Amino acid sequence: MMVLHPAAMLTLWAGVAVFVQALPPVGVWVAALGLVALAAAIDATRTAKLVRRIRVLLVVIVLMFGFATPGTAMLPVWTAASPTWDGLALGATHAARLLAMVSLVSILLARMPVARLVLALHVLAAALRPLGVSPDRVAVRLSLVLAELDGPKLQWRSWLETVEAPGGARALTLDVMPMRWQDRSAMAAVILAGVGVFWWRM
Predict the structure, then answer these.
(1) Do 39 and 102 belong to one domain?
(2) Among candidates 31, 91, 85, which has minimal Cα distance to 58?
(3) Is 92 among the domain residues?
(4) pLDDT tens readout for residues 145-190
(5) Does the model's pTM come out above 0.85?
(6) Per-residue CA distances from 9 to 5, 69, 81 (Å)
């Protein structure tokens, strides 16, 4: 069984994420429900934790679009203070997109060890070095973000105290893996597919 380089796997994951976001509303809902079910089957605890952390945002998105989008009033008697069916449908679609992305993140974290994920982003960020992007800084910051995602939820005061507290030097070690022709071919296929979809939608 061929195992792709972490950078190639992350590229494929990004391609799936972009494809889901480009789906029509019905497709977004089908994809979101399917991804939530798949993520829950792979790691129910992590998926529930991630979804729970965005539950308020999901409600805010639906309500914001519901009250700000013109359309048929949900409460005809109080049209001035009523959300619209069109807005609620639009907000629900955007909430489904966010839910799909969170499910994809849960699947990614469950299937790819943190060290491999950091290595993947380090390799991909190396291509942006001519633009002034430091792959080492990107890798370190990603490792801190992932530690926060899998760690206990902190209150904002505790988080500030943790960030501002002086700490000792930490080393981040990455295992170098060679890029093979299979990996480069998979990454090129994703990029070409993305360009093709963008050109078709134009």
Answers:
(1) yes
(2) 91
(3) yes
(4) 776 665 555 454 454 454 444 444 455 566 677 888 888 898 898 8
(5) no
(6) 6, 38, 48
